[in-house]
Design goal:
alpha/beta, Rossmann fold, 15 helices
Protein backbone atom coordinates (compact mmCIF):
# COMPACT_ATOMS: atom_id res chain seq x y z
CA UNK A 1 0.00 0.00 0.00
CA UNK A 2 1.29 3.45 -0.89
CA UNK A 3 2.22 5.54 2.13
CA UNK A 4 0.25 8.69 2.84
CA UNK A 5 1.82 11.79 1.34
CA UNK A 6 2.02 15.23 2.92
CA UNK A 7 -1.12 16.40 4.70
CA UNK A 8 -3.42 18.23 2.26
CA UNK A 9 -4.93 21.35 3.80
CA UNK A 10 -8.39 22.11 2.48
CA UNK A 11 -10.47 25.28 2.19
CA UNK A 12 -14.08 24.13 2.07
CA UNK A 13 -16.58 26.47 0.42
CA UNK A 14 -20.10 25.37 1.36
CA UNK A 15 -19.49 23.32 4.50
CA UNK A 16 -23.15 22.85 5.43
CA UNK A 17 -24.53 21.81 2.04
CA UNK A 18 -24.71 18.33 0.55
CA UNK A 19 -21.20 18.59 -0.93
CA UNK A 20 -19.91 19.92 2.37
CA UNK A 21 -21.46 17.00 4.25
CA UNK A 22 -19.77 14.51 1.93
CA UNK A 23 -16.44 16.35 2.05
CA UNK A 24 -16.39 16.46 5.85
CA UNK A 25 -17.18 12.73 5.90
CA UNK A 26 -14.22 12.00 3.60
CA UNK A 27 -11.88 14.18 5.69
CA UNK A 28 -13.05 12.46 8.88
CA UNK A 29 -12.25 9.06 7.36
CA UNK A 30 -8.69 10.14 6.52
CA UNK A 31 -7.41 12.46 9.28
CA UNK A 32 -3.83 11.49 8.44
CA UNK A 33 -4.25 12.81 4.87
CA UNK A 34 -6.58 15.81 5.06
CA UNK A 35 -7.23 18.78 7.33
CA UNK A 36 -9.83 21.54 7.01
CA UNK A 37 -8.06 24.88 7.49
CA UNK A 38 -10.89 27.17 6.43
CA UNK A 39 -14.61 26.83 5.68
CA UNK A 40 -17.63 28.84 4.66
CA UNK A 41 -21.35 28.34 5.21
CA UNK A 42 -24.57 30.17 4.57
CA UNK A 43 -26.94 30.74 7.47
CA UNK A 44 -27.16 27.21 8.85
CA UNK A 45 -25.19 27.79 12.02
CA UNK A 46 -26.68 24.74 13.69
CA UNK A 47 -24.65 22.60 11.28
CA UNK A 48 -21.68 24.93 11.02
CA UNK A 49 -20.87 25.23 14.72
CA UNK A 50 -20.39 21.47 15.28
CA UNK A 51 -18.25 21.33 12.11
CA UNK A 52 -16.01 24.09 13.47
CA UNK A 53 -15.72 22.24 16.77
CA UNK A 54 -14.79 19.00 15.01
CA UNK A 55 -12.31 20.37 12.46
CA UNK A 56 -10.95 23.54 14.10
CA UNK A 57 -10.40 25.68 10.97
CA UNK A 58 -8.39 28.88 11.25
CA UNK A 59 -10.77 30.95 9.10
CA UNK A 60 -14.57 30.78 8.76
CA UNK A 61 -17.03 32.80 6.71
CA UNK A 62 -20.80 33.13 7.04
CA UNK A 63 -23.44 35.19 5.25
CA UNK A 64 -24.21 38.01 7.66
CA UNK A 65 -22.38 40.25 10.10
CA UNK A 66 -24.72 39.08 12.89
CA UNK A 67 -23.92 35.40 12.31
CA UNK A 68 -20.22 36.22 12.19
CA UNK A 69 -20.49 37.85 15.63
CA UNK A 70 -22.16 34.73 17.04
CA UNK A 71 -19.45 32.43 15.63
CA UNK A 72 -16.75 34.67 17.14
CA UNK A 73 -18.42 34.40 20.54
CA UNK A 74 -18.55 30.60 20.26
CA UNK A 75 -14.99 30.27 18.90
CA UNK A 76 -12.88 33.26 19.95
CA UNK A 77 -9.71 31.78 18.45
CA UNK A 78 -11.17 31.57 14.92
CA UNK A 79 -10.97 34.40 12.37
CA UNK A 80 -14.55 34.94 11.16
CA UNK A 81 -15.62 36.94 8.11
CA UNK A 82 -18.88 37.31 6.23
CA UNK A 83 -20.31 38.07 2.82
CA UNK A 84 -18.44 38.05 -0.47
CA UNK A 85 -15.10 39.07 1.03
CA UNK A 86 -15.40 36.36 3.65
CA UNK A 87 -15.65 33.72 0.90
CA UNK A 88 -12.53 35.06 -0.77
CA UNK A 89 -10.69 35.02 2.56
CA UNK A 90 -11.57 31.35 3.04
CA UNK A 91 -10.40 30.43 -0.48
CA UNK A 92 -7.15 32.41 -0.40
CA UNK A 93 -5.89 31.41 3.03
CA UNK A 94 -2.14 30.90 2.44
CA UNK A 95 -2.10 27.56 4.25
CA UNK A 96 -4.77 26.03 2.00
CA UNK A 97 -3.47 23.65 -0.67
CA UNK A 98 -6.85 22.65 -2.14
CA UNK A 99 -10.01 24.73 -2.43
CA UNK A 100 -13.13 22.56 -2.58
CA UNK A 101 -15.86 24.64 -4.19
CA UNK A 102 -19.21 23.31 -3.03
CA UNK A 103 -21.27 26.52 -3.04
CA UNK A 104 -24.33 26.52 -5.28
CA UNK A 105 -24.69 29.38 -7.76
CA UNK A 106 -22.55 32.15 -9.20
CA UNK A 107 -21.57 33.35 -5.70
CA UNK A 108 -18.85 30.70 -5.88
CA UNK A 109 -17.11 32.37 -8.82
CA UNK A 110 -15.05 35.07 -7.09
CA UNK A 111 -13.46 32.84 -4.43
CA UNK A 112 -12.68 30.15 -7.03
CA UNK A 113 -11.08 32.69 -9.37
CA UNK A 114 -8.96 34.24 -6.63
CA UNK A 115 -7.82 30.78 -5.54
CA UNK A 116 -6.62 29.70 -8.99
CA UNK A 117 -4.85 33.03 -9.49
CA UNK A 118 -2.72 32.02 -6.51
CA UNK A 119 -2.00 28.60 -8.03
CA UNK A 120 -4.14 26.64 -5.58
CA UNK A 121 -5.72 23.38 -6.70
CA UNK A 122 -9.45 23.91 -7.29
CA UNK A 123 -11.66 20.87 -6.71
CA UNK A 124 -14.85 22.16 -8.28
CA UNK A 125 -18.38 21.02 -7.54
CA UNK A 126 -19.82 24.44 -8.36
CA UNK A 127 -20.55 24.13 -12.08
CA UNK A 128 -21.87 27.69 -12.29
CA UNK A 129 -18.32 29.00 -11.89
CA UNK A 130 -17.32 27.59 -15.28
CA UNK A 131 -20.69 28.36 -16.87
CA UNK A 132 -20.48 32.03 -15.94
CA UNK A 133 -16.76 32.63 -16.49
CA UNK A 134 -15.14 29.52 -17.92
CA UNK A 135 -12.79 31.35 -20.25
CA UNK A 136 -11.21 33.79 -17.74
CA UNK A 137 -11.08 31.19 -14.96
CA UNK A 138 -9.29 28.58 -17.06
CA UNK A 139 -6.96 31.27 -18.44
CA UNK A 140 -6.05 32.22 -14.86
CA UNK A 141 -5.44 28.57 -14.01
CA UNK A 142 -3.12 28.15 -17.01
CA UNK A 143 -1.22 31.31 -16.06
CA UNK A 144 -0.67 30.24 -12.45
CA UNK A 145 -0.29 26.51 -13.04
CA UNK A 146 -3.33 25.75 -10.88
CA UNK A 147 -5.06 22.41 -11.39
CA UNK A 148 -8.84 22.47 -11.81
CA UNK A 149 -10.28 19.07 -10.86
CA UNK A 150 -13.95 18.15 -11.27
CA UNK A 151 -16.04 16.99 -8.33
CA UNK A 152 -19.33 16.62 -10.22
CA UNK A 153 -19.78 12.86 -10.60
CA UNK A 154 -20.17 13.16 -14.39
CA UNK A 155 -17.05 15.22 -14.92
CA UNK A 156 -15.07 13.15 -12.45
CA UNK A 157 -16.05 10.14 -14.58
CA UNK A 158 -14.89 11.89 -17.76
CA UNK A 159 -11.63 12.93 -16.09
CA UNK A 160 -10.92 9.31 -15.19
CA UNK A 161 -11.84 7.92 -18.61
CA UNK A 162 -9.78 10.56 -20.41
CA UNK A 163 -6.64 9.30 -18.69
CA UNK A 164 -6.80 6.37 -21.14
CA UNK A 165 -6.01 8.44 -24.25
CA UNK A 166 -4.77 11.72 -25.65
CA UNK A 167 -6.91 14.75 -26.39
CA UNK A 168 -6.56 14.14 -30.14
CA UNK A 169 -7.92 10.61 -29.72
CA UNK A 170 -11.25 11.75 -28.25
CA UNK A 171 -14.25 11.52 -30.55
CA UNK A 172 -16.92 12.67 -28.09
CA UNK A 173 -17.83 12.98 -24.43
CA UNK A 174 -21.10 11.42 -23.27
CA UNK A 175 -22.73 12.81 -20.14
CA UNK A 176 -25.29 10.54 -18.52
CA UNK A 177 -28.45 11.84 -16.85
CA UNK A 178 -31.05 10.04 -14.77
CA UNK A 179 -33.80 12.01 -16.48
CA UNK A 180 -35.05 13.26 -13.11
CA UNK A 181 -38.48 12.54 -11.64
CA UNK A 182 -40.42 13.33 -14.84
CA UNK A 183 -38.73 11.07 -17.38
CA UNK A 184 -41.94 9.12 -18.00
CA UNK A 185 -44.55 11.57 -16.72
CA UNK A 186 -47.36 12.56 -19.10
CA UNK A 187 -46.11 15.71 -20.78
CA UNK A 188 -49.58 17.26 -20.71
CA UNK A 189 -49.51 17.29 -16.88
CA UNK A 190 -46.32 19.35 -16.56
CA UNK A 191 -48.18 22.58 -15.65
CA UNK A 192 -49.55 20.76 -12.56
CA UNK A 193 -46.11 19.73 -11.24
CA UNK A 194 -45.66 20.81 -7.61
CA UNK A 195 -42.49 21.72 -5.75
CA UNK A 196 -42.70 18.45 -3.80
CA UNK A 197 -43.00 16.52 -7.07
CA UNK A 198 -39.89 18.18 -8.49
CA UNK A 199 -37.85 17.61 -5.32
CA UNK A 200 -38.29 13.81 -5.48
CA UNK A 201 -35.14 12.93 -7.39
CA UNK A 202 -35.06 9.20 -8.17
CA UNK A 203 -31.36 8.48 -7.51
CA UNK A 204 -29.50 11.39 -5.83
CA UNK A 205 -29.99 13.28 -2.59
CA UNK A 206 -29.06 16.92 -3.23
CA UNK A 207 -29.97 20.47 -2.23
CA UNK A 208 -33.23 22.00 -3.53
CA UNK A 209 -31.75 24.19 -6.28
CA UNK A 210 -29.72 21.46 -7.95
CA UNK A 211 -32.62 19.00 -7.53
CA UNK A 212 -34.95 21.31 -9.47
CA UNK A 213 -32.22 21.78 -12.08
CA UNK A 214 -32.03 18.01 -12.39
CA UNK A 215 -35.79 17.83 -12.96
CA UNK A 216 -35.68 20.39 -15.78
CA UNK A 217 -32.32 18.97 -16.95
CA UNK A 218 -30.89 22.49 -16.83
CA UNK A 219 -28.29 20.92 -14.58
CA UNK A 220 -27.22 18.58 -17.37
CA UNK A 221 -27.06 21.46 -19.80
CA UNK A 222 -24.83 23.41 -17.44
CA UNK A 223 -22.64 20.32 -17.23
CA UNK A 224 -22.19 20.46 -21.01
CA UNK A 225 -20.73 23.96 -20.65
CA UNK A 226 -18.63 22.83 -17.70
CA UNK A 227 -17.23 19.92 -19.74
CA UNK A 228 -16.42 22.25 -22.62
CA UNK A 229 -14.10 24.31 -20.37
CA UNK A 230 -12.70 21.52 -18.22
CA UNK A 231 -11.67 19.32 -21.13
CA UNK A 232 -11.33 21.79 -24.02
CA UNK A 233 -13.89 19.93 -26.13
CA UNK A 234 -16.38 21.90 -28.27
CA UNK A 235 -20.12 21.65 -27.61
CA UNK A 236 -20.97 19.54 -30.70
CA UNK A 237 -18.65 16.81 -29.37
CA UNK A 238 -20.50 16.61 -26.03
CA UNK A 239 -23.67 14.49 -25.92
CA UNK A 240 -26.26 13.67 -23.28
CA UNK A 241 -27.99 10.30 -22.84
CA UNK A 242 -30.50 9.20 -20.22
CA UNK A 243 -29.38 6.49 -17.83
CA UNK A 244 -32.02 6.07 -15.08
CA UNK A 245 -29.86 3.91 -12.79
CA UNK A 246 -27.13 6.59 -12.41
CA UNK A 247 -24.43 3.93 -12.13
CA UNK A 248 -22.48 4.80 -15.28
CA UNK A 249 -21.58 8.40 -14.50
CA UNK A 250 -20.30 9.32 -17.95
CA UNK A 251 -18.39 7.92 -20.93
CA UNK A 252 -15.71 8.86 -23.42
CA UNK A 253 -15.79 7.57 -26.99
CA UNK A 254 -12.41 7.49 -28.69
CA UNK A 255 -11.73 7.72 -32.43
CA UNK A 256 -11.06 3.98 -32.67
CA UNK A 257 -14.62 3.21 -31.52
CA UNK A 258 -13.70 2.27 -27.95
CA UNK A 259 -16.02 3.63 -25.25
CA UNK A 260 -14.74 3.92 -21.69
CA UNK A 261 -17.29 4.29 -18.91
CA UNK A 262 -16.77 4.96 -15.22
CA UNK A 263 -19.08 3.37 -12.64
CA UNK A 264 -19.48 3.79 -8.90
CA UNK A 265 -22.26 3.95 -6.30
CA UNK A 266 -24.44 7.09 -6.16
CA UNK A 267 -22.36 8.67 -3.43
CA UNK A 268 -20.59 12.02 -3.83
CA UNK A 269 -17.84 10.91 -1.48
CA UNK A 270 -16.30 8.91 -4.34
CA UNK A 271 -15.65 11.88 -6.69
CA UNK A 272 -14.61 14.06 -3.74
CA UNK A 273 -12.05 11.46 -2.65
CA UNK A 274 -10.81 11.17 -6.24
CA UNK A 275 -10.28 14.94 -6.53
CA UNK A 276 -8.58 15.23 -3.15
CA UNK A 277 -6.15 12.37 -3.77
CA UNK A 278 -5.46 12.90 -7.51
CA UNK A 279 -3.22 11.75 -9.16
CA UNK A 280 -3.11 8.89 -6.63
CA UNK A 281 -5.81 6.43 -5.68
CA UNK A 282 -6.12 5.16 -2.12
CA UNK A 283 -8.10 2.37 -0.46
CA UNK A 284 -11.47 3.54 0.83
CA UNK A 285 -13.81 2.25 3.54
CA UNK A 286 -16.77 3.24 1.35
CA UNK A 287 -18.81 0.30 0.01
CA UNK A 288 -18.21 -0.35 -3.68
CA UNK A 289 -20.44 -1.73 -6.42
CA UNK A 290 -21.86 -5.23 -6.23
CA UNK A 291 -21.77 -5.91 -9.96
CA UNK A 292 -23.90 -9.04 -9.79
CA UNK A 293 -26.76 -7.14 -8.15
CA UNK A 294 -26.90 -4.23 -10.61
CA UNK A 295 -29.42 -5.81 -12.96
CA UNK A 296 -29.98 -3.98 -16.25
CA UNK A 297 -28.22 -0.75 -17.09
CA UNK A 298 -30.45 1.19 -19.48
CA UNK A 299 -29.70 4.06 -21.85
CA UNK A 300 -32.24 6.20 -23.70
CA UNK A 301 -32.07 9.21 -26.00
CA UNK A 302 -32.98 12.57 -24.50
CA UNK A 303 -36.32 14.02 -25.66
CA UNK A 304 -35.74 17.70 -26.57
CA UNK A 305 -39.41 18.60 -26.12
CA UNK A 306 -39.49 17.11 -22.61
CA UNK A 307 -36.27 18.88 -21.62
CA UNK A 308 -36.17 22.22 -23.50
CA UNK A 309 -33.60 23.56 -21.02
CA UNK A 310 -30.88 21.45 -22.62
CA UNK A 311 -31.53 22.96 -26.04
CA UNK A 312 -31.31 26.45 -24.54
CA UNK A 313 -27.93 25.61 -23.06
CA UNK A 314 -26.50 24.32 -26.32
CA UNK A 315 -27.72 27.49 -28.05
CA UNK A 316 -26.14 29.68 -25.36
CA UNK A 317 -22.87 27.75 -25.58
CA UNK A 318 -22.79 28.14 -29.37
CA UNK A 319 -23.54 31.87 -29.06
CA UNK A 320 -20.80 32.21 -26.45
CA UNK A 321 -19.74 35.43 -24.76
CA UNK A 322 -22.12 36.52 -22.04
CA UNK A 323 -24.97 34.18 -23.07
CA UNK A 324 -24.07 31.33 -20.66
CA UNK A 325 -23.74 33.74 -17.72
CA UNK A 326 -27.14 35.23 -18.52
CA UNK A 327 -28.71 31.78 -18.85
CA UNK A 328 -27.33 30.70 -15.48
CA UNK A 329 -28.43 33.83 -13.61
CA UNK A 330 -31.93 33.78 -15.10
CA UNK A 331 -32.24 30.13 -14.17
CA UNK A 332 -31.25 30.82 -10.55
CA UNK A 333 -34.00 33.45 -10.28
CA UNK A 334 -36.55 31.20 -12.00
CA UNK A 335 -35.79 28.16 -9.83
CA UNK A 336 -36.10 30.20 -6.65
CA UNK A 337 -39.41 31.63 -7.88
CA UNK A 338 -40.70 28.11 -8.47
CA UNK A 339 -39.48 26.93 -5.05
CA UNK A 340 -41.27 29.93 -3.52
CA UNK A 341 -44.50 28.92 -5.28
CA UNK A 342 -44.60 32.04 -7.44
CA UNK A 343 -44.44 30.44 -10.89
CA UNK A 344 -45.50 27.08 -12.34
CA UNK A 345 -42.93 24.47 -13.28
CA UNK A 346 -42.90 25.08 -17.08
CA UNK A 347 -42.30 28.80 -16.46
CA UNK A 348 -38.78 28.05 -15.18
CA UNK A 349 -37.44 27.42 -18.66
CA UNK A 350 -39.79 29.99 -20.18
CA UNK A 351 -38.28 32.70 -18.00
CA UNK A 352 -34.74 31.71 -18.95
CA UNK A 353 -35.62 31.76 -22.64
CA UNK A 354 -37.26 35.19 -22.38
CA UNK A 355 -34.26 36.69 -20.63
CA UNK A 356 -31.88 35.21 -23.20
CA UNK A 357 -34.06 36.52 -25.99
CA UNK A 358 -33.73 40.07 -24.63
CA UNK A 359 -29.98 39.92 -24.12
CA UNK A 360 -27.43 41.59 -26.34
CA UNK A 361 -24.42 39.28 -26.16
CA UNK A 362 -21.00 40.74 -25.34
CA UNK A 363 -17.59 39.17 -24.85
CA UNK A 364 -16.50 37.82 -21.47
CA UNK A 365 -12.76 38.15 -20.94
CA UNK A 366 -12.78 38.88 -17.21
CA UNK A 367 -14.70 38.00 -14.08
CA UNK A 368 -16.01 41.58 -14.05
CA UNK A 369 -17.55 41.02 -17.51
CA UNK A 370 -19.18 37.81 -16.32
CA UNK A 371 -20.58 39.39 -13.16
CA UNK A 372 -21.95 42.34 -15.13
CA UNK A 373 -23.86 39.95 -17.41
CA UNK A 374 -25.01 38.01 -14.34
CA UNK A 375 -26.35 41.16 -12.68
CA UNK A 376 -28.14 42.27 -15.88
CA UNK A 377 -29.86 38.89 -16.17
CA UNK A 378 -31.04 38.96 -12.56
CA UNK A 379 -32.59 42.39 -13.05
CA UNK A 380 -34.25 41.30 -16.28
CA UNK A 381 -35.56 38.08 -14.72
CA UNK A 382 -37.01 40.04 -11.81
CA UNK A 383 -38.79 42.32 -14.28
CA UNK A 384 -40.21 39.36 -16.21
CA UNK A 385 -41.29 37.43 -13.11
CA UNK A 386 -44.67 39.17 -12.62
CA UNK A 387 -45.67 38.23 -16.17
CA UNK A 388 -45.30 34.53 -15.35
CA UNK A 389 -46.78 34.42 -11.86
CA UNK A 390 -50.49 34.34 -12.48
CA UNK A 391 -51.33 31.35 -14.67
CA UNK A 392 -49.81 27.98 -15.61
CA UNK A 393 -48.10 27.80 -18.96
CA UNK A 394 -47.87 25.07 -21.53
CA UNK A 395 -44.66 23.05 -21.31
CA UNK A 396 -42.86 24.92 -24.07
CA UNK A 397 -40.30 27.70 -24.21
CA UNK A 398 -39.57 30.44 -26.77
CA UNK A 399 -36.63 29.73 -29.02
CA UNK A 400 -33.24 31.29 -28.42
CA UNK A 401 -31.76 33.22 -30.10
CA UNK A 402 -34.92 35.22 -30.67
Amino acid sequence: MKEAGPLKRIALLGATGSIGDSALSVVSHFPERFAIVSMSAGSNLEKLLPAIAAHRPKVVSVTTREDAARVRREFPGVSVGFGAQGLVDVATLPEADVVLGGIVGSVGLAPAYEAVKLGKTLALANKETLVVAGEPLMAAARASGAAVLPVDSEHCALHQALRAGTHAEVKRLVLTASGGPFRTRDFATFPAITVDDALRHPTWKMGPKITIDSATMMNKGLEVIEARWLFDVPGPQIDVVLHPQSIVHSMVEFVDGSVLAQMSPNDMRFPILYALTYPDRIPTPLPGLNLTSLGNLEFFPMEPTRYPAVGLVYAALETGGSAPAVLNAANEIAVQAFLDGRIPYPAIVEMVARVLGRHRVVGVTSVADALEADAWARREAAAILPLLETSPRAATAPAFPA
